[in-house]
């Protein structure tokens, strides 16, 4: 091996031994017991070094072949460069995978398509559960992005948002994501109420679930009607609420219940309203 190879291995060994070897100052005239103790300590430390070097050998085995795992070897400059480049590529792949995972968890991911097209995917979720996906294909044309195709619901106002795409594409993507997730959240809140209470009465809502009317069957009491209006597309709590109970044909508002719909999730607010209606 050349000088560089020896230096590389010596440096590695010295760094490892610096962590594990215990210096022992032997006084002059030390007896055989002290010499045996020193040999035992060295043997122990060599075993520790051997154990510490095993992960490195595993990396070498993956990069250079199984022969690298059989024992310490002097590495050529080419071999060292191969290990280094392989490690760099592995780190880059891991960073890319982590970034993709992060975007997926955030509900947004994208990938390049043929030519000047880019696909943006929106994963919707509510209460920790994933639901449907929506897609927008952007085309880069004349120095700007434009919408080529999409699968967004009809109530997403692309005409209103297109100027935002031209001036701030990330903000355009975030706005669509926020609106889609809010829509799914509102829809799933209504579905949760239907599943838990088995509503027999009327359940009416708009396509974007920004207007909702519930007629709640209240056992042992008159029906309770709930009117909800989510004024902003990003709202997951209604800003306008009316809760009333029909008593002998006359609506009686339950004001204390109305405030709960603006603070709690729908299923919790409904439970509170039914309790108040019996009071």
Question: Can you describe what's shown?
Answer:
A hairpin with a 4-residue loop joins strand 1 and strand 2. The chain contains 7 helices and 9 strands; from the N terminus they run H-H-H-E-E-E-E-H-H-E-E-E-E-E-H-H. It has a 5-stranded antiparallel β-sheet with strand order 5-6-7-8-9, with helices on one face. It has a 4-stranded antiparallel β-sheet with strand order 1-2-3-4. It is an alpha+beta fold and 279 residues long. 15% of the residues are buried. The radius of gyration is 34 Å and the shape is flat.
Tell me the strand percentage band: 15-25%
Count up the helices: 7
Secondary structural class: alpha+beta
Mean pLDDT: 76
User: What helical percentage do the residues reach?
Assistant: 40-55%
Q: What is the tally of beta strands?
A: 9
Low-confidence stretches: 1-30, 66-72
Tell the overall outline. flat
Q: What is the end-to-end distance?
A: 91 Å
Order of H and E elements: HHHEEEEHHEEEEEHH
What's the main sheet like?
5 strands, antiparallel
- Radius of gyration equals 34 Å
User: Which strands sit side by side, in order, in the main sheet?
Assistant: 5-6-7-8-9
Question: How does the SSE layout of this entry go?
Answer:
Elements: H1 3-20, H2 32-64, H3 77-106, E1 108-112, E2 117-126, E3 129-141, E4 144-150, H4 158-167, H5 169-197, E5 203-205, E6 211-216, E7 224-229, E8 240-247, E9 250-253, H6 255-263, H7 266-278
Helix pairs in contact: 1-2, 2-3, 4-5, 6-7
Give the structure's gist in a few sentences.
With 279 residues, the protein is of the alpha+beta class. The protein is 51% helix and 22% strand.
